Amino acid sequence: MIRTRFAPSPTGYLHIGGARTALYSWLYTRRHGGRFVLRIEDTDRERSTPEAVNAILEGMVWLGLDYDEGPFYQTERYERYREHLQRLLEEGQAYRCYCTRERLDRVRAEQQARKEKPRYDGRCRDLSAPPSDEVSDEPVVRFRTPLEGHVVVDDAIRGKVQFHNSELDDLIIARGDGTPTYNFTVVVDDLEMGVTDVIRGDDHLNNTPRQIHLYAALGVEPPRFAHVPMILGEDGKRLSKRHGAVSVLQYREEGYLPEALLNYLVRLGWSHGDQEVFTIDELVQLFDIDDVNHSASTFNPSKLLWLNQQHIMHAEPAHIARHLAPFLSARDVDPTEGPALEAVVRAQQERAKTLVEMAEASLFFYRRPAAYDEKAAKKNLTSESAGILEHCAHRFSGLPSWTGEEIHAVVTGAAETFDVKMGKVAQPLRVAVTGSTVSPPIDVTLELLGRDETVARVEAAAAWAQRPESQSPAE
RNA sequence: GCUCCCAUCGUCUAGUGGUUAGGACGCCGCCCUCUCAAGGCGGUAACAGGGGUUCGAAUCCCCUUGGGAGCGCCA
User: Fold this and answer.
1) What is the pLDDT of residue A85?
2) Is the CB of A176 under 7 A from strand B?
3) What average pLDDT does the segment A441-457 reach?
4) Exposed end of chain A (fewer CB within 10 Å): N or C?
5) Radius of gyration of chain A measured on its C-alpha atoms
6) A377: phi > 0 → left, psi -120 to 50 → alpha, else beta; which?
7) Which nucleotide is nearest to A423 (CA to C1')?
8) CATH 1.10.10.350, domain A374-465, yes or no
């Protein structure tokens, strides 16, 4: 059975790049009926924070990327690493290195000055006793990397990638204080957690040959690897916390649907013919890791926005209503007091790119506009339109029932009566009830708003339109 | 600097030796229209460059160029 994992380090929130990696792992696992494990790589105690852990967990929940096991915390697994470390030491596959940081820094600087690739020079590799000078009292443990030959990473996305062992050096697997480092903990965890497929960012491809050696030293077969390309910011640089990468939770705040974000992310590096819009179920059916592209891609906010609109348009109104409600509440509107939220959603569904937009554009359904938009009022609430508004208010009051059809008939009737175009009736009405020139079709809008509220607002607007100042001689 | 990865419209991509190089976002125009949208139609725009291989290369190979990543007692 396939087992994958997502292994973020809690040094910041869950951002776009991490979310896509998680998505790919998740989709791949769901597609093949495997198990998805969440592991928090918090061995960097300096920078890991509980807030970041929470932000990551919350991001996963919002995106709907559920995991079958975990979260496991590496800091709770030190015993496991210690055991393996001990074994490597005993078998001579690892050794203590007494070099001081100062010596290491100096060696590195010298190598760079000589335009060489910086790497450990192996001073302690074959020592039987600690060296006599420049000795650290807290020795680290290094892994004995083969000097000759090469390793091949058989990557599910990139194919075979070959590295010469001469390019590798003896990496530190345990710090001076005895705590294990990344390249060692991933290997131990992935093998102990039975991970069959390691799906991770491209930036780890260079670590993979070392890890393959570690697997060999521990006597196990390495998992299958899949290195997914990076996501670049609009400046072409790798997306990072410092570089324009925003938290996925920020997209929630900006009114994006999780399925839209996921849809956008999956298409960044993967495709299925010409299809652009996918449901999560479709993705689970169609996605496979070896179809992922080789090249890095650039984050394109306007396409994400379009996709969000697509998902808003095609989703069930009830689903959108659930996501929309908090945005209304945040604007001091109680969506249960006024037209049914689902009906409002239906009316707004194809004219909002985000839930924020939809909430803003729907406020007038729940409370009277504080003021008429200045330009809108000047153009539409005139002494001429006042008569039309009064006429409409009167007819609305007399309607046998309050339906869109009858409302529509009143509007078209008014246009005929006054011998004007539809716009000369609809727009003043729109300004009267919404305060602006934008809303769903006028009959739909008024029907939702209700007869009493409509008549009240239209009469108020008619009165406003007739006040002396609106015919100010300054015109 | 060294090693590794990558290279089709501005962006995301289809393409796997023979296509007028397709789609999508964006942008522009037109249509529809009570506003805003949505929708429809049309337009703009790409195979980084150079060598090969081949009857024939976006597709295969090499070089160059460009971009990215790694080279920590970070992950």
Assistant:
1) 97
2) yes
3) 97
4) C
5) 32
6) alpha
7) B34
8) yes
